[in-house]
Write a structure and sequence with these properties.
heterotrimer, A alpha+beta (353), B mainly alpha (288), C alpha+beta (355), B: 288 residues, mainly alpha, MetI-like fold, 2 strands, globular, C: 355 residues, alpha+beta, Rossmann fold, OB fold (Dihydrolipoamide Acetyltransferase, E2P), 6-stranded mixed sheet, 5-stranded antiparallel sheet, 8 helices, 22 strands, 24% helix
Chain lengths: 353, 288, 355
Amino acid sequence: MAIELKKVTKVVGIDTHIHETSIKLEEGHFNILLGTTLSGKTTLLRLMAGLEQPTSGEIWFKGENVTGIPVQKRKVAMVYQQFINYPNFTVYDNIASPLKVVRRSRREIDKRVHQVAELLQITPMLKRMPNELSGGQQQRTALARALIKGSDLVLLDEPLANLDYKLREEFREELPKLFQDSGATIVYATTEPAEALLLSGYTATLHEGSVTQYGPTSSVYRTPKDLLSARVFSDPPINTAAISKRGDSFHYNETVSWKARGRYATLPDGPYTIGFRPHYITLKPNNTASISVKGEVVVTEISGSESVIHMRVGKDTWVSLSHGIHPLKRGDTVELFLQADHCFYFDENEQLI
Amino acid sequence: MIDKTTNQRAWFLVLPVVVLVAFNALIPLMTVVNYSVQETFGNNVFFFEGVRWFEQILHSERFHASLLRQLTFTGIILLIEVPLGVAIALTMPKKGPWVSVCLVLMALPLLIPWNVVGAMWNIFALPDIGLLGQMINGMGFDYNFTQQPLAAWFTTILMDVWHWTSLVVLLAYAGLSSIPDAYYQAARIDGASAWSVFRYIQLPKMKRVLTIAILLRFMDSFMIYTEPFVLTGGGPGNTTTFLSIDLVKIALGQFDLGPAAAMSLIYFLIILVLSWIFYTLMMRNEEQ
Amino acid sequence: MAKITLDQVRHSYLDHPASPDDWALKQLDMVWDDGGAYALLGPSGCGKTTLLNVISGLLRPSEGRVLFNDRDVTDIPSDRRDIAQVFQFPVVYDTMSVFDNLAFPLRNRGVPEEQVKSRVHEIAGMLDLEAVLGNRASGLTADGKQKISLGRGLVRADVNVIMFDEPLTVIDPHLKWQLRSKLKELHQEVGVTMIYVTHDQTEALTFADRVVVMHDGTVVQIGTPVELFDKPRHTFVGHFIGSPGMNLLPCEVIEGAPSFLGHRVETAEAVAVPTGARQLEIGVRPEFIHFAAKGLPVDIVRVDDVGRYRIVRVNHKSHTIKLVVPENVPIPDGKGHLVFDRARTHVYADGWIIT
């Protein structure tokens, strides 16, 4: 087992940063901490690194209790959102620094630096100073430093947040490959659901200092445990609606109803909440069970091949993501089709049924 | 319960400082407290006097007079140095080769030892041979700081302003250079006048450093000794005898150790209380 | 409100620019229509912020003229151009209340207090800031502060243009959606020209009616989001817009049809190769490639499930091709055949489109 938190809490003054959390991260994989700003991602990373000590609970690393052991004595590497390098060292010396600290031979250092630099495509920059590099190259240098250390645990705190959109795309593709052979456990904090999906691996969704769900990324995405996890893992934001079940059908706003099928047929009557992602409510009916809903357009955003329609339905505001270009105007009435079999049904406690 | 394996040995590293502070501050302070409640005629013979010295000092007109002089002096120099310092900082260049030149020029007065400053100004302001003294007299004013109280005050304040405004300038400048360009650009677009930019952007962003500047200047000026002592020796008469000069006169001049000790403590408490009031007032503003 | 014209504008931050690389903005001639929603899209260092500052008047271009409604404003400072700008990091006047922040540009211009009041309430209503009007601006969250910055622009009835310099940088993803659609909504409501600078294609495409793509100090293409997507004029646009970007495959043209390693590819029109062209490439977006029974034979290398769709990487000989497959469409096992959407397959000569 790589890293495990056992009933860990972190309280600073009167603020609880982390509520009691127990989580076992998958060894040798990408583990993504997904949540908004201030959801506790950075605190968890700092606890895992040993930069902070938990208020209560234990942290186990490779079957050993490491609670209270300071960061210097753990084999961890960390990469931050800001590009942190030694400004008065060359790129070469920056990358070599973790090995110099542990006094490796010059020849070994030289060999390893070139290996890692090659992997990160910064060999031509080895003699330059960090401030002569572009943002992407600076972050490559920081990653190289993390990689060369040969740590068992690599912590990445929103490493792509300060990079251009296109550069992020490149990095997302490269990152999993970079760490593939190292066998290290990677913990990667991000605010972006799309990033979690692209990096794959395992994902923990965080909300206000609690881990709401943890599991393989695609299964967390496809079967969120509760409404909170579904909200955290949806971009564009997930649509919700309060519905009620009477007899064998579900009713929404007294105007829309559909038959309860499969395992939902046996649910007791009463109020429920449904959640559905924007691409499951579209302008064209899908061949599977589609529910027709009418709404009023608030604003339409058109990207190159898709239309994002923000609309008002009753007192709810929903977002629809449809294929194709549909320049609808504000105030237009629009008929949309909701794919009932892609809805999440939540009970009164917002737990998935 | 969890095992706290946190390493506590780091405290040993702090030990030397603790010892040093004890020798430096605590032990002398305790000695002063000890003296302040006793009477001595030398030969290490002491009589317990209780709070008599404190009562005596607090009721003495001499103390009142030097305290008033001290407060007046501190008030005047704060009123001059803070606005002047901010004004100079505002006119300093923000970029380019002149920045370092300006900063070095500004820092120069701060590098001169205090007694040298006093001696310099003493000679500089002498009415017969000093450049400043001659100039003022040349302009038709009757100026002699060794004879006239007003001239002595004028010279002392001028000297302090010359010596210490730089500190305010440097701190204010640091505060100003931390303001992102976007703020100035936004203000220009919003049509803000230069005064509005100062009032709503620069001043609020400088608040923190100005707090520190005022506090430092307040404490330092309240404890001023060397410069006026070298310049005027507290005279003419007692007109520039500030608290610290008065204290030394009592302690060393008259060798009244008891009253001098009591006065030191009162002096110390005044600075402590005033600084604390200043600080909390300014910090409370900050939080709002 | 105004039409903005850039007339032979060039800018260099150096006093004596010598080589073409010394110009942060190379020759620019363009017109921004009154009331348009524009995005200025490009990577870091492409000159987009420079261009923005030239329009707002924070920077005087080294050469050329800037016209607002045919009035030359090149030498007029930004405070007299009647423009508004929202910066990357929220700029609020910390010591003022939200109300005073919004009222600030009006009061500076001597607008009567009565009018200030009604205008501020109107704008606060649009931005959902009414509840916090009395609060200190410094206590708001990042998106609240950004709304104030925006509100200070909107509050003035006479603004010619509102400019946004990567305004969502410090905003969380789920709030980005809200704020961005709010911007779009406001644009439709007030109809003032807006220019939105960003490196994020999603933001640019969803916000703007027309997107201006910049690269290395020049404008590579101006077009609607659909035009940029369906027919990128330059391979840079193809690569920069779209995620993943356009596939580029080397080709030769035989009898007016492009051929990729001996495999003939259909295009809408016959290809005429300009003389002197050195490098020919086929450009086709991952969205416009499909698996079919017959076509270009490929090996499937990797499938990434990103929720709504899957990104599939396939190899044909040593070339990697990416394609996007929707959630409910099956992907063949191991090997397959590709077909390119004929109307959206283009040929590029030295980077520029020829068909």
